[in-house]
Write a structure and sequence with these properties.
The longest helix is centred in the first third of the chain and has 32 residues. The strands form two sheets. This protein has a two-stranded antiparallel sheet with strand order 1-2. A two-stranded antiparallel sheet has the order 3-4. It contains 16 helices and four strands. The chain has four domains: 116 residues, no CATH class; 43 residues, no CATH class; 64 residues, no CATH class; 74 residues, no CATH class. It is 51% helix and 5% strand. Strand 1 and strand 2 form a beta hairpin. It starts with 10 loop residues before the first helix and ends with a helix.
């Protein structure tokens, strides 16, 4: 008898078994989310040649794209608010409920919101949130409306690698796809203008061909900028000693791009190669800090995730976290200097030249950079001590 043929069961036994299986399924779902959250937090998808947890769930765990996105979002939210795990295991909350609640959960509101949403349908939870967090009426007119954003700082982290929800590409037939997306007025104007200017070559004005030509032009520009692609490359010359040690010559970029096939070259211990073609970066196999050189044999393409992972393997996780924090502070200093009227190039130069000063806070780093840019006035406030003295105080 087939395991899935249940005709021999009585009505009551059938209902009892269904309830028991559903209860077990909820407990399993909560446990699964806990495992997803922990694997995500430890970034164990990186050694498996996956650039993100979403890719790992789809490619290794074989979840559907939408199912992976939902489970990662819920897992991250439940990791912040562990009461969600218990509520899912008990059957008080479903995954869609957590997705609706996630943008509004805080340390103060989590327990109360979880209790209020328990055993409610998706529609009922939407009404509950509308009552507690009302939004203004939409105007009675036809125009584009931006997606509403959750309260600042409350939304869980973006699920990297997941497809944007506002764009759809649907296969129709072999090598034929339907593209659906939302564009703003300026993009519409550009599209109509391109269509009009191409009428001599494309009398039909077929939008698919207009987009195809536009993408050809865009790709040419992007490949030239990122990979130094050119139909007539110059012959390689002797390397200039004045250039930064991190500089990668154009001929090396072109050769590495051709060799790695515009794809992350990271390979797992099992021999699986990362499939990412997004956020690609040139990486020195032997780090520049350890004397690495920019040659075709010692430069590779890595996605940003695996570039960071390779650096962490070499220098340690704590060191890389400190470096990322330093880079974030330097970016804020550059932004502040630009806001004061300095050019980006001058701001970057000042940040680099002031990096050795004993400044640890954002304010100290900003003042130190100002001292480099304008020694005459930045070194001394109107009635205060010199910047150098202040930094050492």
């Amino acid at each position: 008898m087939s395991t899935y043929s249940l005709k021999h069961l009585s009505d009551q036994i059938l209902l009892d078994h269904l309830a028991a299986l559903l209860a077990e399924d909820r407990k399993t779902a909560a446990t699964l989310l806990a495992y997803i959250a922990e694997v995500d937090a430890r970034q164990l998808y990186l050694p498996a040649a996956c650039p993100s947890m979403h890719v790992y769930c789809v490619r290794v765990l074989h979840l559907a794209e939408d199912a992976a996105y939902k489970r990662i979002t819920v897992a991250r939210t439940a990791r912040r608010f562990p009461a969600i795990f218990v509520a899912i295991a008990d059957g008080r909350l479903h995954l869609s409920a957590v997705g609706l609640l996630a943008p509004y959960l805080t340390e103060d509101s989590a327990d109360e919101l979880i209790a209020a949403a328990s055993h409610r349908t998706k529609a009922e939870i939407a009404l509950l949130l509308a009552e507690r967090y009302p939004r203004p009426d939409r105007p009675a007119s036809l125009h584009s409306v931006p997606a509403s954003a959750p309260p600042d700082g409350l939304a869980p982290g973006r699920v990297a690698g997941a497809p944007p929800p506002t764009t759809k590409v649907v296969p129709l037939a072999p090598q034929r796809f339907a593209l659906e997306l939302t564009i703003d007025q300026s993009t519409q104007d550009k599209l109509l203008r391109a269509q009009a200017l191409l009428r001599h070559q494309l009398p039909s004005g077929d939008l698919a061909q207009v987009v195809d030509r536009a993408l050809d032009s865009l790709l040419d520009d992007l490949e030239r900028t990122k990979f130094a692609a050119t139909p007539r490359p110059r012959a390689a010359t002797a390397r200039s000693t004045a250039r930064s040690a991190r500089h990668i010559p154009n001929d090396v970029k072109r050769a590495v791009h051709a060799r790695d096939g515009e794809q992350c070259s990271f390979v797992s211990d099992e021999g699986v190669r990362c499939t990412s073609r997004s956020f690609l970066e040139f990486d020195h196999v032997d780090p520049v800090a350890l004397g690495g050189q920019a040659t075709v044999a010692t430069v590779r393409l890595l996605c940003r995730s695996h570039n960071q992972y390779a650096a962490a393997c070499t220098f340690g996780t704590d060191f890389m976290q400190a470096r990322r924090a330093q880079a974030a502070m330097e970016a804020d200093v550059i932004l502040g200097l630009c806001g004061l009227g300095w050019s980006t190039s001058d701001a970057r130069r000042a940040v680099a030249l002031s990096a050795q000063l004993p400044a640890t806070t954002l304010e100290q780093r900003l003042i130190a950079a100002l001292a480099v840019l304008h020694p005459g006035s930045a070194n001394r406030c109107s009635d205060g001590p010199t910047v150098a003295a202040w930094l050492h105080s």
